[in-house]
Design brief:
The chain has helices at residues 12-19, 65-78; strands spanning 23-27, 30-34, 41-46, 54-57, 60-62. The chain is α+β, with helices and mostly antiparallel strands. The model is unreliable at 1-5 (pLDDT under 50).
Length: 79
């Protein structure tokens, strides 16, 4: 993934989100992916404070929020 300051290059993930017309919203610790014509996907923290902490996407465990968003978008695409 690449990051630069505002006005520079954007992350690959951000570009994927924009091109898929997915709306990402948060409420407390839950991240929601919403896309017209697809079921809403919720991403939640799991095992907080343990060595296995990470995120859960429809009961699928992943390590990072970035991975969770990618998995969620794939679930919506295949939905």
């Amino acid at each position: 993934m690449k990051y630069e300051s505002a006005g520079g290059m954007e992350s690959d993930l951000l570009e994927k989100i924009r091109s898929s017309n997915t709306v990402v919203s948060t409420r407390i610790c839950t991240v929601r992916l919403e896309k017209i014509g697809s079921d809403t996907v919720e991403i939640r923290p799991r095992d907080v404070g343990t060595h296995t902490q990470g995120w859960s996407v429809n009961e699928i465990p992943v390590q990072t929020l970035e991975e969770a968003i990618i998995v969620g978008m794939e679930i919506q695409a295949r939905g």
